[in-house]
Every structure is written in C-alpha cells, then in structure tokens.
Amino acid sequence: MLNRVFLLTFSIVLAVGCAKAPEPIWDATPYTLAFGGLPEPELPADNPLTEQGVKLGRMLFYETRLSGDNSMACASCHKQENAFTDTSRFSVGIDGLEGHRQAMSAVNMLWNTNGYFWDGRVQKLRDQSIMPIQDPLEMNETMENVVEKLEQDTLYTHQFFRAFGSENISSYRIGLALEQFMNSIVSYRSKYDLYLEGTATFTEEEELGMDLFFNEYNPFFPETSGADCGHCHGGKNFSSQEYMNNGLDSIYNDDGRYEVTGLESDRGAMKVTTLRNIELTPPYMHDGRFKTLEEVIDHYNEGLHNNASLNPALAMTMGTGLMLTDTDKSALLAFLKTLTDTSLIQDSHYASPF
User: Fold this and answer.
1) What is the pLDDT of residue 27?
2) Digit-coded pLDDT (tens) for 207-223
3) Alpha carbons 113 and 173: distance in angstroms, whole number
4) What domains, with CATH codes, occur in the chain?
5) Degrees (nearest 5) of the Cα angle 139, 144, 145?
6) Measured distance CA(341)–CA(58) in Å, rounded
7) Residue 275 above 90 pLDDT?
8) Distances (CA, A) of 273 to 80, 111, 185, 240
9) Distance in angstroms (rounded) separating the CA atoms of residues 167 and 188
10) Which member of 102, 108, 161, 266 has the greatest number of CB atoms within 10 A?
11) Comparing C-alpha atoms, which of 128, 190, 156, 129 is closest to residue 65?
12) Positive/negative CA dihedral, 233, 238, 243, 246
C-alpha cells in the first residue's frame, strides 16, 4: 500500500514538473508621453507604450531590410523633415513604380480614431504599418522574408526580447512595435500652441487668419463671413476624423471611401487629415494635385466642383465662393503657418537610431 501511495505521489510531481510553464508577464519600462495641450489620448490597452517597444519600433521604422531589395524603409516616404510624409506627389517604390495616392503624415496618430489610409480601409495602426511592406508598388517584400532577415541579427533578437520578453520575431510583433513608435510621434509645440499657452503672440495678420479660419461662412454678411475651415479641421488636432468629398472633381477619378463602404454618399470622400505642420507637407490632397497652400485656399474659395456626394457645408458656399480677398488669403496662409512645429522635425527622439 505504501509503495502505491509513493508511486502516485511521484507521478503527480512528475506530471506537474513536465507541464508547460505559463508565459511570463513582461515588465517593460512605461514610456513617458508628452502631448502638451492636446486632449488626453486613449492608448491601446493591448499595446501600451514602453521605452523598449518604442525603441524597437523606431529601429524598424528606419530599417531598410523591411523592403524587398533592402533599399527602402518606412522613413523613406515618411521623412521627419517633412513632418513624416513625402513631398513627392506619389512615392516611388523599390521597383520604380509610383503609388496611387499621396503619402499621409504619420504624426499624432494617437488622435486618429477612425481608420487609416485615405479611405480608412484599416482600423488599427499595427495593421496599417505592415501593409506598405507587402505592397508591390511600395516595399514589395513578404513578412516571412522580413522575419527571416531580422532573426539573423542579434541586434533585433535582443531588442525583441527587451520589448516583448522573448526573442520570438513575428509580423504581429513587428506591427505592434511600429505602432508604438508612430504613436510616440506627437506634434504639440507649434507657434499656435505657444499662443494658446500665452508664451507667444500673433501678428495682426495671423490674428485675422485665425478669425477667418474659425469663423463661419455667411453669404448675407460678407464683411464678417469667415472661411469656416474649422468646420472640417476642428479640435486641437485640426481634423474631424471624418471622410468627406471636398469637390475636387465633378467626375470622380478615385472613389475613395466608397471602395470600403459601398455607400454612394461616400463616393469620392477622403479622410480629413490634420492641418498641423501643413506648411511642411506639400503637395496637397489625396492625389497631390496642389503644389502650394495658395492653390488649396483658391480651391475652397472659388474652385469647388459640384458632384452628388459633395460635403453639404462646402456645397452651400458654391453660389458666392468664400468671398476671400487677397488680404484674407494672405492672412489665412499666415495662420496656417503658425501650425508648424519646428521642434518636431528637430527632435532626436524621432530621428534614425542608426
């Protein structure tokens, strides 16, 4: 009887000892995010910012081995000096092929709450971040090859361990790390922000431009009518996060949001992007058709094209245009330039780590 008890006890101990140990909970260092007067951001609960994760994401953002011929990185089309976008009308991929839409700025992604890309076809930044890698027009690589390349470099296996608690490299973890780095890129130190803090003053022209930007269009009182830009580019991040048709064409050459929703009301609609650092991010619109901000202002002032899904707020201005004088246009331009954050483009935290 004693032997049977001993054998049973030994068997239980052996079984417990051979069972798979639970995955350790990795305790990385929380990342301190500065965002000034911007609203409190909602961080992804399943991908909080950590020092180690942001560092890994930064490395990957500038890593050319993510492309098929090891020549192009995310940073090739999202340049820090241009507020993390490309000044080419259409970015050129590793095989010399152009994309179909202008590269979007990868700044203040934490306040992007309604999809990614011009048409919003992806809901999470981690998923968006690895799509250009696999796009034949862009980096033209497979995630399997990317993983294999990175696994051969101890610099990366060690950093994946620091960020996630193991050296396992996967496309999912690559997306998480890139999401962390891009979520850490925050623009909040423009002249406009300093003006709100009371540490900078506007010129009379900038003051006039700000009034025009936020005041509503009123055809019955032209002298006090505004450009009503804040209707679509509102809030501290200067974006409504909506998808709108802004009258670029009477006949669509890009269906935009319609390709995702199938709704006629979304045909030709594109994401309303932030106007922060707009001075640094030419050309403008989803197809980069406007080279200057002056052209953009002229479009809204007198160049709208009517179509079935034109945004109603814009449609109501077509009878008179915005009635902006040359003085008004110059003032509006001056205000838009106060949204430029020179600290962002000089911040070493966002520069290449290599």
Assistant:
1) 81
2) 999 999 999 999 999 99
3) 21
4) 51-187 (1.10.760.10), 191-338 (1.10.760.10)
5) 55
6) 20
7) yes
8) 17, 11, 16, 8
9) 35
10) 108
11) 156
12) positive
Q: If you average pLDDT over residues 174-191, what whole number do you get?
A: 98
Task: Tell me if 276 sits within 8 A of 107, measured CB to CB.
Answer: yes
Cα 186 vs. chain centroid, distance in angstroms? 10
* Other CB atoms within 10 Å distance of the CB of residue 118: 21
Using one digit for the tens of pLDDT, what is the confidence trace for 83-100?
Answer: 999 999 999 999 999 999
Pairing between strand 243-244 and 270-271?
antiparallel
139 with 146: CB under 8 angstroms?
no
Beta bridge partners of 239: none
The pLDDT score that the predictor gives to residue 22 is: 38
CA dihedral 123, 127, 130, 132 (to 10 degrees): -20
Percent of the chain with pLDDT over 90: 91
Rounded Cα distance between 173 and 129, Å, is 11
- pLDDT tens digits, 317-354: 999 999 999 999 999 999 999 999 999 999 999 999 99
Q: What letter does residue 105 receive in the DSSP assignment?
A: P
Which token pair is 120?
């919003």
CB distance 276 to 190 below 8 Å: yes
Q: Where do we find the tokens 């974006």?
A: 239
- At residue 111, the 3 state secondary structure works out as helix
Beta-ladder partners of 116? 122
